[in-house]
Design brief:
This protein folds into two domains: 48 residues, no CATH class; 107 residues, no CATH class. Helices cover 48% and strands 2% of the residues. It has ten helices and two strands; from the N terminus they run ααααααααβααβ. The radius of gyration is 19 Å and the shape is elongated.
Length: 190
Amino acid sequence: MIHFLLPFSHLRRLSQKSERDVAEASTLSRGAVRQLCRPETANLTCSSINQIAEHFNREVDIVMGCPEIFSEYSTVAVIYKIERDGFDSWKTHLFDLVDEFRRTADTRLILLPPPASADTKIIALLNSTVRALCNEVEITPPSWALRRHFLSTPWFLAGMNSLKASALLESPLPFRANNIFVHSNFLERA
């Protein structure tokens, strides 16, 4: 079974195009377009998926795995949810991942790297968060998280000038290493 985190049906509606319009413009059959627009889609080729993605000027990352492995809280899912809901939604989706990892200690949640096409700030934040979580449970981070994702401009997550000095002092090493500054209790929930 194939799951799309941003279904093509949503893109089709946003573009205000009919199945026929999309099919003609992407050189796919209407049946192929219809299959792509249903979350329970089966029997698709990578070529068809790429054609429709190109039509909507989107990149496609295909992650294959067993349904038992797929999680809506994984690092990859976090990126797609942020892209779907907008940059400012990062707090909600990041902390859903943090909570799920702490609840389950399932390393499959953090195994895959975020897509390279994602916002560099979010990649750096995920990298820092995964390294901090791995430090908590005393495991080696996945290889993608061992590489630094240093931001050229410092990012103070508190956003308030009055809190920058304390964030500079308190920021844990996994965040500081990527030029991200948070308070020592950043990963804690109220």
